[in-house]
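@channel anyone free to eyeball this complex?
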Amino acid sequence: MSIDKKTVEGVAHLARIELEPKELEKLSRQLEHILAFIDKLSALNTENIPPTSHILPINNVLRKDEPQDSLPVEKALLNAPDKQGKFFLVPKVIE
Amino acid sequence: MELHKSTSHALLEKLKNKEISSQDILKDLASRISKEDGKVKAYVRPSEKINPPELKGVPVLVKDNICTDGYNTECCSKILSGFKPPYDATVIKKIKDAGHSFLGLKANMDEFAFGSSTENSCFGPTHNPWDLNCVPGGSSGGSAAAVAADEAIWALGSDTGGSIRQPAAFCGVVGLKPTYGRVSRFGLIAFASSLDQIGPLTKDVRDCALLTNIISGYDANDSTSINTPVPDYTKALVNNAKGIKVGIPKEYFVEGLDPEVKKIIEEAINKLKNLGAQFKEVSLPHSEYAVPVYYIIATAEASSNLARFDGVQYGLRAKAEGLIEMYKKTRRLGFGDEAKRRILLGTFALSHGYYDAYYLRALKVRKLIKQDFDNVFKDFDCIITPTSPTPAFKIGEKVDDPLKMYLSDIYTISVNLAGIPAISIPCGLTKKGLPVGLQIMSKHFNEEMLFRLAYTYEQNTEWHKMKPKL
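replying in thread with the prediction:
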């Protein structure tokens, strides 16, 4: 399977990264090269192999539903690029 | 006194006998750093003072992706510029509880740990103390170079595909990737959550065991940490390899392995044979698929983990009219080339129409790679391989060819995919004077076997005492 410039453009939109035309050109070439190498995986028959989502046998890790200390609002906002009162401030979402 | 040249266990002895104070260590390190780091560049943001919070014990150097309360933690990325975490990572808490402090300054790394050479740092590359024209390896290149150059006594790195072991090998120090789940990842800024582990980089095996003792253990804040008892790893430091069964995987000694590295590894194997270890050739038949599997799984997880860097809660924010535009501009300006490449590759592998062919298939092949190890460990205590197919390469040599760079992790990646522990120890120098690392792997939660074999080798050789000339 190969990847063209249009696909990379679409993926960049999904990943919310703006790309310069030159960057798009270069990245498309590199990704195609990398994917060609990755395609060696298709040589393996994987039909009856269960996928590994976790390497150790742990499932459903739960804790008691008890209130605990959480990060105070002032501390959570310390690194905010922009804020107003108790909130993170972002550019307008709805016109 | 040249305290900076010491191991931590030697300094701890002196501290105990009140011959020195932690302040003495810090002062000595500070003068060493100001003298040598202009060449090595293992530290980032050097204008900040070395000012550990409550100085005590032997200060630990920490990689720039481990959160330290109130101290800059930027993953060597512009997108986290100025970020001061509001809390300590669990490993930092454990270091403090054990009577030590973290150094205050942070170690250089590839941006978000994406790389094998520390050239992908927004602060510029670190230089290998053994040859300043060479890379220190990566992504924990700053931690490894600082320990090798005696600019730090001991250090923490993180290892997702070899990022502790490969730089340890390139810089001639000891580096351990613990079993997945042995050390809490809470406060480690995530790259690939199913592969990441924090681990030590040290001057000898004893220091490595000591630091592993400190950072290991269950943590309710990390749902993937495992609640099994932590043994005292220093008890595994026994100078005796008799009867240890070691497998040598034939797939690791093929084309691509530098002949000089091969010879040095064979000499190390002979040494261990003479010390009583038993060797036999084994097979890990799916080894050749490890790199492609890794670059699907690791980038898929990274693309999801790095979605949080959007200019809203911390770090860089680009000026823009609308929200989506703000995200896109922030991420264009904030991420370096390799980060963009990996985010795009991972997003592609997870996207509609490609998921089954790439991500799902990679998860299945990961199972085959793990089964290869399970089969070998039925009959063997450990596996020995080179840590890296080559010694340190030149700065700039692989930056334009991402695939070539990815292949430099060919011997370390399978360990992360299988979740097993592995250590790299120095085992020789090439004719040009570059260190070579020996990698020992074992089954889940059998770090003790690694320490025993590594310690036995170390006690009967002199490589760990070699120092680079700066």
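from a first look: Chain B has a mean pLDDT of 96.
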